[in-house]
Amino acid sequence: MEDALKQQPSNCIKVVLFGPESTGKTTLSTQLAKHYNTVWVPEYSRTYLQDKWDNEGKICEPKDILPIAIGQMKLENELAQKTDSVLICDTNLLETKVYSEVYYQGACDPILNIYALKNFYNLYFLTYIDTPWEDDDLRDKPNEREHMFNAFESALKTYKKPYIILKGNKKERLELAVKHIDNLLMNKI
What we know:
Strand order of the largest sheet: 2-3-1-4-5
Oligomer: single chain
Shape: globular
Structural class: alpha/beta
Distance between the termini: 35 Å
Number of strands: 5
Low-confidence stretches: none
């Protein structure tokens, strides 16, 4: 199982859209992938949990966390081989860890915990809660966005991950993200 959570070697810069639900991560992921003509890693949990909801009428349970983490890393490892420039990740294992701890009273599978901290990303874009809430079958904490944002930022600080907070409208967020990714790409050369 450990191999399923480990990042495979790649030649690309990896950036992560990180933060509470309904804060524009997927929108920005697709914008950045288009801007850089690269691939982006979608959030595996959305497909996994939507299927669970549609087929069983159930929401996420603790037993779902590891399959979600494994599916996420499988997608990331596959897509990282398709670019030498930048890989845009709509989420990562650290985000899964934060959700697990917030939703399940501090619980996080020990193996997930190891790889959530061990896997490397060049930069995290922490998305602020100044976007309108968009309801769907899976989103469930519209009144806890500030609490969730604080949990995500606390994790980035605690584990000393490089991050930039993205605020504002779509255009402002995209411009700021592009500025920081361009800097990473220039330093890669």
